[in-house]
Amino acid sequence: MHTGEQYHAFMLGSQRDRAVRERFQKLALGLMPAGAGLLDFGAGTGIDAKAYAASGHPTFVYEPSEPMRACLARYCRDEIARETVVTLTSPLACKVQAVTADFAVLNHIEDHAALFEELSHVVQAGGFVLASMLNPYYLGDARYDWWRANLVNLVRHGHYAIPSESRIHRFSPGFMARAAAPYFHLERRTPRGWGTVTELYMFLLFRRD
């Protein structure tokens, strides 16, 4: 998947990913007061943004990838024209009730302490950051050498990076909670129980202190 259009088509065509996205959107919308604004951080092609705007939430979008932004501009054309979706060149250019980061956006960022400090200037008091992140405990990844080789790093340090072009990282919830402090605290983590090892994604809810 090299273009925004290819990514967009894949995400809309994947039943598994649609189900994960629906759960994430339902959780985010259930936490939002009526009419409250939000920032879709790493908005991709605008799939979530369109849903948030349709639910009556003014939605700001920040997406650093040009191919993704181009696809978003087409997919959310009507919402952008009505200004129910507003594109930003900096995530700091808004003040909102919530920030959402879906489908492993935060797994591509190494310095979360700096990120949460920035987001503390964006999220209103009592608001939240909701992130969908790759689950470092997912046993489906145990077939890969990199997963087994990094178990010690996960236990000792709470994070590791996979040697690849994207340098995608895995983070434990505890590591993320420490990075979020003192601006946010980890209020909720899903899944629990068996889902901790059987679900590819985990949802982390951070509340603004």
TrEMBL record:
Task: Output one GO BP term.
Answer: methylation
- InterPro entries of this UniProt entry? SAM-dependent_MTases_sf
Biological source species: Dyella solisilvae
Lineage top rank: taxon: Bacteria
Q: Does the keyword Transferase apply?
A: yes
User: What is the name listed in the Swiss-Prot or TrEMBL entry for this protein?
Assistant: Methyltransferase domain-containing protein
Transmembrane intervals? none
Give the UniProt keywords, A-Z: Methyltransferase, Transferase
What is a single molecular function from GO for this protein? methyltransferase activity
